[in-house]
Amino acid sequence: MKESEFTKVNPLVRDASLWSAEDGEGAELEVSEFIGALVRLLKPKFVVETGCYKGQTTREIARALQENGHGYLYSCDTDQERVLAVRKTVSPQWGAVASAPGVAGV
Ligand SMILES: C[S@@+](CC[C@H](N)C(=O)[O-])C[C@H]1O[C@@H](n2cnc3c(N)ncnc32)[C@H](O)[C@@H]1O
Questions:
Q1: 50, 79 in Cβ contact below 8 A?
Q2: Count of domains observed in the chain
């Protein structure tokens, strides 16, 4: 789908149809790919992702770490169902997906 289905025209994003997204909550595909490219470039020892949602970026990061042959991803989400679903898609060799308690009162 085109990002324009979820993002209205605004001064910062004049043509959201140039980007792709599965829905209005997840990252744009290009953003996930960019983060994967950063992981390939920087070769981090650890990566922390807060909010895995459906795991699109989680999987990009884990794939990049695997290609690097080095590093580990710690991801989390406050939504337990999302955590359980995404955890199944990430090799424990490259990452762990945990439940986050969230911030009290928020
Ligand atoms: C914009 S989505 C994340 C998009 C995702 N990273 C992707 O690549 O598509 C935000 C996610 O953060 C989660 N979330 C919200 N507050 C959080 C918190 N305090 N700690 C961890 N996850 C949180 C939500 O449940 C939701 O799944």
A1: no
A2: 1
Mean pLDDT score of the chain: 94
pLDDT at residue 37 greater than cutoff 70 = yes
Taking the CA of residue 53 as reference, the ligand 1 atom at the shortest distance is: 27
- Nearest ligand 1 atom, CA 60: 8
Q: Residue 90 Cα, ligand 1 centroid: separation in angstroms?
A: 17
Nearest residue by C-alpha to atom 24 in ligand 1: 51
22: in domain = yes
The whole model's pTM is what? Answer: 0.93
Q: DSSP assignment of 4-39, as one string?
A: GGTS---SS-S-GGGSB-SSSSSPPHHHHHHHHHHH
Please determine, for residue 102, whether its predicted confidence score (pLDDT) is greater than 80: no
Ligand 1 centroid vs 100 CA: distance in angstroms? 10
Q: 43 lies in which domain range? A: 3-99
For position 104, what pLDDT does the model report?
60
